[in-house]
Amino acid sequence: MNLTFTQEQEMMRKMVRDFATAEIAPFIENMEKGEFPREIIRKMGELGLMGIPVPEKYGGAEMDFTSYIIAIHELSKVSATVGVILSVHTSVCTNPILYFGSEEQKQKYVPKLASGEYLGAFCLTEASSGSDAASLKSRAVRKADHYVINGSKVFITNGGEADVYIVFASTNPELGSKGISAFIVEKGMPGLVIGKDEKKMGLHGSRTVQLTFEDMMVPVENLLGQEGAGFKIAMANLEVGRIGIATQALGIAEAALEAAIAYAKERRQFGKPIASQQGVGFKLADMATSVEAAKLLIYRAADLRTNGLKCGMEASMAKLFASRTAVEVATEAIQVFGGYGYTEDYPVERYFRDAKITEIYEGTSEIQRIVVSKHL
Ligand code: CAA
Asked: Which of 39, 42, 152, 303 could tie 212 with a disulfide, CB 3.0–4.6 Å?
């Protein structure tokens, strides 16, 4: 694998880094108070960031998958909230339409998603069906030219703010995972009820809601793929989505590492900077080594994807390792900062709070181990 990035990819990195520093960093305080970064998303749309891997004919930037991962990486270093908004929007809302949608569906939805006019969400998880995604209870019944969907979803990232939702519901419960179908649902469709906005430990600027479908009427032309193909659509897109979440974790870990190094060089105890004392120096060395390893796993998985090769196992390995790294490195960064790290005066407590969810959503670490072990 060649880990030298192309000129185009380096330009993407610089552009996103500059954007994140200039536009996102000043808005972090607002996001920490719960404000959704609507204006930032609009500007990202203008820069082409909301449709990086989308073909030009559907209004996208038509760049490779690695460039998309570079964007999530740089965004997440500044704000994990913005990182997850982009990852969910692209990996598990735009991509399913792009890969499994009819030509009409692609033309209707993808250009608006790629420009950022529409924001996307993915609705799989239910109150009693998390890791066991195939056990979902939402039900879709065909009535003439509509499906009538009843049920509810929980922990929907971008929910409420999103304009397009990929919704999974069973059209034939007797068939288990093979009875699950996917639907493209628009915000205004009758029967879609936006519920409780979760109060979370971290990612305060990202919206996570419950959704209820009360006789929600979805036109038959909004069935995505064939009836019964929904579970495979969910899995295939989650597989790739997991590289995005791994990258979000990497961004958090790298930000925590950089903050810890800067502080350790500045902070003096026992007559010298704490960075030059072995207890702290070794800690920083371990943190940096883990971050580097996570980076290699992620860019390796991204490279496979960019080249159209299978990446399911590598994506799960990357997510498993990078999310653990984010939690460990953020924890150690607080340790380096000592008492100051526990206060809101420094960003490391935010990294710590934002890191934990990367071990949970888009498949817990335990689920990633199941996926990896099945491949083995
Ligand atoms: N691509 C295509 N098809 C796949 C696939 C993939 N990656 N993985 C599985 N399938 C297919 C299988 O081939 C099988 O079909 P066949 O019988 O025709 O071969 C079918 O799907 C069922 O597969 P399994 O028997 O392996 O399914 P399972 O019920 O044992 O579940 C699982 C497998 C990996 C545990 C899965 O349930 C899973 O990934 N669970 C975690 C759910 C998850 O990640 N949720 C995230 C929610 S979204 C989110 O978090 C977004 C956010 O907010 C950030």
From this structure: 152
Write the pLDDT tens digit of every residue in 82-121.
Answer: 999 999 999 999 999 999 999 999 999 999 999 999 999 9
Q: What amino acid occupies position 363?
A: G
Supply the DSSP string of 191-205, one letter for each residue. Answer: TEEEEEE---SS-TT
pLDDT in tens, 229-248: 999 999 999 999 999 999 99
Q: Which residue has the tokens 């072995």?
A: 278
Pocket of ligand 1 from Cβ distances under 6 Å:
84, 88, 122, 124-125, 131, 133-134, 157, 177, 231-232, 235-236, 238-239, 312, 361-363, 367, 370-371
Which of the 8 DSSP states describes residue 127?
Answer: T
CA of 133 to the centre of ligand 1 (A): 7
Q: Are 251 and 75 in contact (CB under 8 A)?
A: yes
Q: 0.90 exceeded by the pTM? A: yes
* Token representation of residue 150: 């009843």
Q: What's the gap in Å between 127 CA and the centre of ligand 1?
A: 17
* Whole-complex ipTM: 0.97
